């Protein structure tokens, strides 16, 4: 079994890389505003862990919606960062690269809070894994942390805080904007983790 990770460079996928140590990681530049920083964070953690890292670039910004695309939110958007069928697109592109590199498992960094979008639910992961498995290559899609919060994932993975600080979670920019859902989550998780340190004996 050869495993690949869809690695965005955010807290969740970075912690999953630390926890599961897959053979391959794939970062996608699909036209999102923070692509450069996401690639940099992903490259850094992969170099540290000795994970083979690949970047796939394809400009889909004209299809995007909301914060990540620098566009108005689509009428169907449940949140400002919603991009139509984004996870389905990312999984497909990553799987296309992963299968060419001999992988047959693709890890996603989805956590419990991603369930606010349909494509972040266990049902979606099961459905797309079944769809991939019925095609050539028998690719499986797994989300090992989907029942965990980000803080729980970080604790389970045991990723040191100085390495977690490499993560880039901003949806709008290569530098933290401080006012998007990605940045808000980033600060909330750090606050939770700092509380753990303060409460430790």
What are the key terms here?
single chain, 201 residues, alpha/beta, Rossmann fold, 7 helices
What does this structure look like?
The protein is α/β, with parallel strands linked by helices and 201 residues long. The chain has a single domain, classed as 3-Layer(aba) Sandwich (Rossmann fold), CATH 3.40.50.620. The chain is 41% helix and 11% strand. The protein has seven helices and five strands. A five-stranded parallel beta sheet has the order 3-2-1-4-5, sandwiched between helices. Strand 1, helix 1 (11-20) and strand 2 (24-29) form a beta-alpha-beta unit. Helix 1 (11-20) runs parallel beside helix 5. The longest helix has 19 residues, at 181-199. It is globular and about 45 Å long.
Give a brief rundown of this model.
With 201 residues, this protein is an alpha/beta fold. The chain contains 7 helices and 5 strands; from the N terminus they run E-H-E-H-E-H-E-H-E-H-H-H.
Helix and strand arrangement:
Elements: E1 3-6, H1 11-20, E2 24-29, H2 35-49, E3 52-57, H3 86-100, E4 105-107, H4 122-133, E5 140-142, H5 150-157, H6 161-164, H7 181-199
Parallel strand pairs: 1-2, 1-4, 2-3, 4-5
Helix pairs in contact: 1-5
Radius of gyration: 16 Å
Helix count from the secondary structure assignment: 7
State the separation between the terminal residues, measured CA to CA. 41 Å
CATH fold-level label: Rossmann fold
* Beta-strand residue fraction: 5-15%
Name the CATH architecture.
3-Layer(aba) Sandwich
**SSE pattern, N- to C-terminal:** EHEHEHEHEHHH
Q: What class do helices, strands and sheet pairing give?
A: alpha/beta
Specify the overall morphology. globular
The main sheet comes to: 5 strands, parallel
Q: Which ranges are low-confidence, i.e. pLDDT below 50, for 5 or more consecutive residues? A: none
Q: What is the CATH top level name?
A: Alpha Beta
Q: What's the domain count?
A: 1
- Order of strands side by side in the largest beta sheet? 3-2-1-4-5
Q: Average pLDDT value?
A: 89
* CATH evolutionary superfamily: HUPs
Helix content: 40-55%
Number of strands: 5
């Amino acid at each position: 079994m050869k495993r690949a990770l869809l690695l965005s460079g955010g807290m969740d996928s970075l912690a999953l890389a630390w926890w599961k140590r897959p053979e391959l990681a794939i970062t996608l530049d699909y036209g999102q505003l923070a692509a450069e920083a996401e690639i940099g964070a992903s490259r850094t953690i992969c170099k540290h862990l000795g994970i083979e890292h690949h970047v796939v670039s394809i400009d889909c910004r004209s299809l995007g919606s909301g914060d990540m695309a620098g566009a108005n939110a689509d009428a169907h958007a449940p949140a400002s960062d919603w991009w139509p069928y984004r996870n389905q697109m990312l999984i497909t592109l990553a799987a296309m690269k992963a299968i060419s590199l001999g992988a047959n498992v693709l890890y996603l960094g989805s956590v419990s809070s991603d369930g606010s979008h349909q494509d972040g639910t266990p049902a979606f992961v099961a459905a797309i894994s079944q769809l991939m498995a019925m095609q050539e290559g028998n690719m499986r899609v797994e989300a090992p942390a989907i029942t965990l919060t980000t803080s729980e994932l970080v604790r389970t993975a045991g990723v040191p805080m100085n390495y977690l600080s490499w993560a880039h979670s901003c949806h709008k920019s290569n530098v933290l904007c401080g006012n998007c859902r990605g940045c808000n989550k980033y600060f909330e998780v750090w606050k939770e983790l700092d509380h753990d340190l303060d409460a430790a004996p």
